[in-house]
Design the sequence.
């Protein structure tokens, strides 16, 4: 795969130039300066933004899910607090750097007779809608990007979930029926799949699997459909929808890497360490312990409970391990996630054989992704996991999925679906002290962005309760039973 945005500065300058006024002192267009960008030039920034929003917001969501804890005592997101100012990068990216650029990419692609861009845009937009509604809940959908409006009504999450499936279907259909030569610049600008259309189609099915898998609390939940979507999606970790980074400078490095410094005062949670150090899974130490985390000053793996802070003086970070390097790819949706989605759906259906096979494959493939050796993987599967489908529990599936999705905001969707239950997520307990404005309730959503919504769209936001101090504790549609 190509490495992401080696010439990001060039693209940014180009877009600035292209966004200048259409009229300048009423002179004719400059024939030496193009007035529109070729469709391929929009793609690198869009792809970067798909990862940036998730990584940026994960710093706060990861405290709620207890992937990590903040270094100082009583941090607001450790206590399930939310904010209109931070943790809202997905919201901005969805409507602006992804949404607006996709709109232009499709227009320019259609003008030059390249429907591949429209098909790709459907898949990307479906992904963006999925992660953004799972983060915030209701969103302006129907009126989004209507340039005649200055205020935008919110649509229900139920409606948005249905539209995501339609976007995936439309994108898959468009990419499955391409004819003629595909723009050669498309592949060189595609920093996820390097122009591999079949993998983009699989990505569409992966989004559908995640979407439908979220509906486990609904009467309409269809395990067979979930399993079908998984089986049509990724066949191995080589199909992962991962954004690549060159890592040559801060500008071209992953948000998770040391040159960006975004995880300097975040430390592994005591919960996450306990999932790897032998506390659970038959007391067998997980080979991922030394591959995903750094030891502390004493050579031990010691996590921090939420809200407590670094009282023990642990002088270590995540850097250098797992995906916390400047040039490490960031998985948007992964093969191992999909195997756990399949395992959960099959378990709920009662097909324990399928559930067990997918569960073991999820564990194995993530261990390989993390860099574990074959012998260590085999040892853990033999000694740390249930022996067969008859002894497999839903808690086994969801706790191993928690480990495999480390850093990914999708873990929050799982925790909310299962009411933060320690029966499902081994040893998970909510902080004793929640944010004062939560009124004793755990976080269920994140506040929308201050500048666009509170400042400019407050009437519409108020209609869904978005100005209430405990709005962040209002359950989302997909988590509730009907």
Sequence:
């Amino acid at each position: 795969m190509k490495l992401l945005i080696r010439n990001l500065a060039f693209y940014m300058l180009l877009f600035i130039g292209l966004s200048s006024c259409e009229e300048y002192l009423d002179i004719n267009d400059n024939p030496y300066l193009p007035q529109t960008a070729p469709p391929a030039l929009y793609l690198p920034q869009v792809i970067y933004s798909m990862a940036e929003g998730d990584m940026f917001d994960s710093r706060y969501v990861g405290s709620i899910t207890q992937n990590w804890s903040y270094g100082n005592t009583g941090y607001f997101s450790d206590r399930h607090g939310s904010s209109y100012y931070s943790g809202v990068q997905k919201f901005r990216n969805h409507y602006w750097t992804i949404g607006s650029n996709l709109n232009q990419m499709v227009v320019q692609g259609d003008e030059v007779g390249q429907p591949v861009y429209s098909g790709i845009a459907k898949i990307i937009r479906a992904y963006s809608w999925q992660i953004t509604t799972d983060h915030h809940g209701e969103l302006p959908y129907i009126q989004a990007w209507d340039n005649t409006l200055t205020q935008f009504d919110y649509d229900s999450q139920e409606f948005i979930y249905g539209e995501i499936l339609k976007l995936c279907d439309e994108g898959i259909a468009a990419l499955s029926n391409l004819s003629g030569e595909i723009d050669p610049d498309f592949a060189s600008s595609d920093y996820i799949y390097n122009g591999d259309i079949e993998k983009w189609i699989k990505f569409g099915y992966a989004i559908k699997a995640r979407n439908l898998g979220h509906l486990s609390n609904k009467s309409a939940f269809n395990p067979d459909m979930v399993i079908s979507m998984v089986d049509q999606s990724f066949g191995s970790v080589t199909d992962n929808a991962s954004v690549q980074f060159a890592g040559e400078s801060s500008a071209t490095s992953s948000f998770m890497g040391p040159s960006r410094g975004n995880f300097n005062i975040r430390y592994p949670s005591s919960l996450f360490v306990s999932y790897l150090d032998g506390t659970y899974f038959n007391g067998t130490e997980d080979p991922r312990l030394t591959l995903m985390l750094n030891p502390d000053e004493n050579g031990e793996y010691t996590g921090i409970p939420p809200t407590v802070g670094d009282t023990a003086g642990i002088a270590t970070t995540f850097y250098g391990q797992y995906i916390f390097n400047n040039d490490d790819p960031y998985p948007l949706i992964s093969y191992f996630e999909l195997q756990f989605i399949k395992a959960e759906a099959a378990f709920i259906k009662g097909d324990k054989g399928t559930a067990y096979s997918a569960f073991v494959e999820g564990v194995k493939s993530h261990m390989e992704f993390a860099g574990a050796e074959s012998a260590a993987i085999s040892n853990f599967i033999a000694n740390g996991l249930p022996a067969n489908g008859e002894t497999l529990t839903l808690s086994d599936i969801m706790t191993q999925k928690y480990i495999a999705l480390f850093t990914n905001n999708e873990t929050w969707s799982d925790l909310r679906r299962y009411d933060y239950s320690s029966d499902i997520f081994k040893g998970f307990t909510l902080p004793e002290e929640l944010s004062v404005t939560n009124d004793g309730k755990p976080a269920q959503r994140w506040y929308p962005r201050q500048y666009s919504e509170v400042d400019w769209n407050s009437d519409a936001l108020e209609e869904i309760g978005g100005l209430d101090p405990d709005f962040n504790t209002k359950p989302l549609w997909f988590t509730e039973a009907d």
Q: What stands out?
A: The two ends are 44 Å apart (CA to CA). Strands lie at 68-70, 241-243, 266-268, 330-333. Residues 1-28 have pLDDT under 50 and may be disordered. Residues 8-275+320-479 form a domain with the Serine Threonine Protein Phosphatase 5, Tetratricopeptide repeat fold (CATH 1.25.40.390).
